[in-house]
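Give me the fold.
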Amino acid sequence: MAAPVKAAHELQSRTRTEDVLINGGVEFSSLLLSKPVLEGLSASGFHRPSPIQLKAIPLGRCGLDLIVQAKSGTGKTCVFTTIALDSLILENTTTQVLVLAPTREIAVQIHAVVMAIGSAMEGLECHVFIGGRPISQDKLHLKKCHIAIGSPGRIKQLIEMGVLTTSSIRLFVLDEADKLLEDDSSSSFQEQINWIFSSLPANKQMLALSATYPESLAHNLSRYMREPTFVRLNPTDPGLLGLKQYYKIVPSHSLPHKVFEEKVQSLLELFSKIPFNQALVFSNLHTRAQHLADILSSKGLPAVCISGGLSQDQRLEAMWKLKQYQCRVLISTDLTSRGIDAEKVNLVINLDVPQDWETYMHRIGRAGRFGTLGVAVTYCCHGEEENKMMAIAQKCSLNLIHLPGTSRSRRIFPVLCQLNSTAFMA
């Protein structure tokens, strides 16, 4: 059997903040999990549960429907993975667990965590079902599949075709539930999930997880969950303790490309002065994201672009490069604003102010994960963008600091300067 992938963050290797640490030496073995699951957790690097894991896993193992809300990067994927694996009957090769994710990248990442924690479960079959892959491959995988993970569109298609049988599904998971169920006319997730839900057995457990919990989510979940148990940590303070948040005002211009040039110039100056391991830069537009990747690469800073406009293979390659430290900077649209876990990312840049506060919180949550130290910087021009950023800061009670000149970066950025930038291996 191949050595399991390390799915957990190395708690001892870096300073961690108290929002992910449990005092008192509590270990996963105290949660009465099955021996193979405990072995898999240990082999993949999970030894002590984070606060949300300690609180949610025992409730989930009791069969309760759960709504789990906790900060980005505090271990929610491990929560539903552990509950799912502990409930499996391996001798029954039909699909028993269905997990939905809003993006293909998150689905692939969930699969990696399931296989890591399930590494000691002999015969475990878990597969990903997403667009951009051949249906013939999906049919083959569904002949024996305990856990199906996928995007709503492909899962619905497979159920309609009769190749994904739902009669044995006992656990239904919505990861990034607020995105899957958001009230957005441009998204067809809601309709697809309604259809998928109606095809599932009435007697099943359901878990919904997210870092943010907008008011609309409670209403939407009432369609599926009658008396769910809320497991919510820090509902009024969604920010990570180790993440410092800055903003910088750039001059306004009537021509959008001039604003872009101003922001890029500020970004290049920042990169030249600030030590960081890896950075994620978010742009609202795909064309800008690709152009910026080209600019950074030409300046000798290895950068890769990822967006929905790329092929599935290109998207997966970009994520692989980020996680294997083959690129220093990932330029992205909101495709990777949620769920993506890359341990070396300690700097997040918003080249554009996001459309809403939930997206902002998810974006900056790509840094400072699992209690590490990180920095988020948002660039906004005078006027509408500045007003939008201030509204987000007020809504989320952010401690937002104005970014001073980068000549004083060593004093202003003690968080990043504490980090060992040589840990990045190009």
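Confidence is low (pLDDT under 50) at residues 1-6, 9-16, 419-426.
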